């Protein structure tokens, strides 16, 4: 496929989106499909609602139930992408694991689980897609951090530590893979009004508390994050790499 610097949209591009059964990941799939991308959805849960939403929007999609902390499952996802669509242009690595707990109550199992889901899955998935992107001399990798890393939010030592690791990974790998036409950027997400947030009293009251601290006084919606994902996935964004873009209505201004 001929790549031009100013190519518009994502027609014929193939994107793997991990952690897309619910929440932000579903919005990313819908947005990338609108831009013309073909989608491979990987989630440990059944992602049939996301698949249906993409198909309803006219998108081509394959869904795989996979634990992205397991290298064998990751290999299955990448093999399916190649056997179905023949290429991998975009990786949106969205899987996440979140809970609040004072540091002294976090068990070692919870600590390692957080690092596994956040960082080990990133290691396995990026390692598996890189050979395909290098061969094509094109790739867009998007990782997810959190605005809690800038805010140093309490009761999240496990989570903030892991999400800061994502930023380190993103910065350092960018310097290695830029010469192959591959970019990697992170989005530090603020508290987002996902569908689950709307039905979760705890998150709803957190949103009420956080919105007045934002520079823009409205809830951060999955579609707000999806717009940034779509931008970073574009061939035309190829000069931007190693960056972390904060999308939280301006709570953290770093
Ligand atoms: N929603 C927010 O307010 C918020 C704030 C800051 C950062 N983030 C980050 O944004 C990303 C998405 O957030 P979200 O709210 O959509 O999360 P979510 O918890 O609603 O969805 C995460 C998805 O990942 C899947 N998943 C979890 N472990 C997996 C594994 N091992 N293998 C495969 N799939 C797995 C889950 O099944 C789920 O579908 C995460 O990385 C999260 O840490 C979200």
General description of the model:
The chain has helices at 23-34, 48-56, 71-85, 108-136, 148-151, 157-177, 195-198, 201-210, 222-233, and strands at residues 14-18, 38-43, 61-65, 90-93, 139-146, 182-189, 244-247. Helix 1 links the parallel strand 1 and strand 2. A 7-stranded parallel sheet has the order 3-2-1-4-5-6-7, sandwiched between helices. It has 9 helices and 7 strands. The protein has a single domain, classed as NAD(P)-binding Rossmann-like Domain (Rossmann fold, 3-Layer(aba) Sandwich). Helix content is 46%, strand content 16%. Helix 1 crosses helix 9 and helix 3 runs parallel beside helix 4 (108-136). The mean pLDDT is 94. By secondary structure, the chain is an alpha/beta fold. Bound molecules: nicotinamide-adenine-dinucleotide. Nicotinamide-adenine-dinucleotide is lined by residues 18-19, 21-25, 43-45, 67-69, 94-98, 117, 121, 144, 146, 189, 191-192, 194, 196.
Care to give the gist of this entry?
The protein has 254 residues and is an alpha/beta fold. The protein has helices at 23-34, 48-56, 71-85, 108-136, 148-151, 157-177, 195-198, 201-210, 222-233; strands at residues 14-18, 38-43, 61-65, 90-93, 139-146, 182-189, 244-247. Helices cover 46% and strands 16% of the residues.
Number of helices: 9
Along the chain, the helix and strand elements come as EHEHEHEHEHHEHHHE
Spatial order of strands in the largest sheet: 3-2-1-4-5-6-7
Total tally of structural domains: 1
Oligomer: single chain
Shape type: globular
Low-confidence runs (pLDDT<50, min 5 residues)? Answer: none
- The fourth-level CATH homologous superfamily is NAD(P)-binding Rossmann-like Domain
User: How many angstroms does the end-to-end distance come to?
Assistant: 38 Å
Name the helicity range: 40-55%
**SS-derived structural category:** alpha/beta
